[in-house]
Amino acid sequence: MRSYEYHRIQDMAARRAAFEALAPKIWWERHVSPTLVIMDAAVAADVLRNPLFVMPDLRGLLRELRSRHPLRLEHLQQALELLPPFLEGEPHARIRKLLGQYLSAKRPEIEAELPGLISALLDGLKRPGTNDLIPDLLVPLTRRVFSTLSGRELTDQIMETRLARIFEAGHSAGSLSKLEQMLERVFDFLDAEDTADEDFICRLCCIVFGIDNIISTLAENIVSAFQASTGTAPARLPHYPVELMLSATYRRPTGEAEVAGHAVHPGNLVRIHIEPFGYSADKAMNAGLFGVGRHACIGKQLSLDIWKHLSVQFNARALVGRITDYQCDPTHSFNFVKTLKVDLLP
Amino acid sequence: MTFDETRTIIIESLHGIELLSDQERDRLLGEKDTDIDLASLSIDSLKIVDWCIALESKVKREVQVEELVENDSINKLARHLSSTG
Question: Do A217 and A244 touch, CB atoms closer than 8 A?
Answer without folding.
Answer: yes
